[in-house]
Specification:
alpha+beta, four-stranded mixed sheet, 11 helices, flat, disordered C terminus
């Protein structure tokens, strides 16, 4: 740790505290933390960049894309972000973006880099699914305190993409909607009811939750972005405009009073 405080311009006690935490998190001694930060991390980042650009070269060779000088600001931004990507699936997307940038100036946009920088492996699998087929998911809002879990998609698809729960799935879906990649369009709402006895002993259908069917599509930006980083075709049915969902939400509100007549049992969701 000697000399690191001068290197980073931070007081020695703070540097020592941070170094001890790095040592615990890394699970190995951190006696040369300064060199690790300056050299090992630097080397690790370049290992990722080399892997990604090697993959990009293979894509370009296969698709007959000639290398050309691309905008310096875009290249620097891409190099900086790519150094922190060590997942194979994500490295494929980064290599595709490089090939797309070599192919067309239209792909040399920093917002593609920023969007890709925040993507997780399971979100990448999720976007591949949307690109290939129409995706409808179910969002269930419980009306009782009883714990119950409903899969947003078929369980095998959830498992394949790596989502362990519906909450995890919807967290990613709404995040991707928030950054403009996806459109979440409500297209129907139904009541989930369960037969049970009331205090008088009569059998009643009690509403335990409300299930909203959501069509999940790419926004126009999302389709353009994923086309650049996947270099795969996207079906037209997978692209929507955000204002379509607003109109459907209004219609659902109008029809909310009819939900009871279209009630579902809990095991039908």
């Amino acid at each position: 740790m000697t000399g690191l405080e001068e290197f980073v311009g931070i007081a020695k006690p703070i540097v020592e505290t941070a170094a001890r935490l790095i040592e615990k998190l890394a699970g190995k001694p951190c006696e040369i933390v300064g060199e690790m930060l300056a050299d090992q991390l630097y080397m690790w980042q370049w290992q990722q960049r080399i892997r990604i650009f090697h993959r990009a070269e293979k894509v370009m060779e296969t698709e007959g894309i000639a290398a050309r000088k691309i905008r310096e600001g875009f290249l620097v931004t891409l190099l900086d972000a790519a150094g922190n990507i060590d997942n194979d699936e994500l490295q494929d997307l980064w290599s595709n973006l490089i090939a797309s940038a070599a192919e067309s100036e239209e792909a040399c946009e920093s917002y593609f880099v920023e969007t890709l920088r925040g993507l997780s492996p399971r979100e990448a699998r999720f976007l591949r699914l949307i690109a290939s087929e129409e995706v409808r998911a179910v969002s269930v809002r419980p009306k009782t305190s009883e714990p119950h879990e409903y899969a947003a998609l078929q369980k095998e698809k959830m498992t394949l993409m790596g989502f362990k729960s519906s909450d995890q799935f919807w967290t990613s879906a709404t995040r991707l909607q928030g950054i403009g990649v996806l459109v979440l369009e409500p297209i129907g709402e139904k009541s989930i009811r369960r037969k049970e006895k009331d205090e008088s002993g009569f059998t009643v259908n009690s509403e335990i939750a409300v299930a909203t069917t959501i069509k999940i599509s790419f926004s126009r930006y999302g389709a353009t972005f994923f086309g650049r980083v996947s270099r795969a075709p996207i079906t037209q049915v997978s692209i929507s405009d955000p204002w379509v969902g607003v109109n459907n939400a209004r219609q659902i509100a109008i029809e909310a009073g009819q939900a009871a007549s279209a009630a579902l049992t809990a095991d039908e969701v």
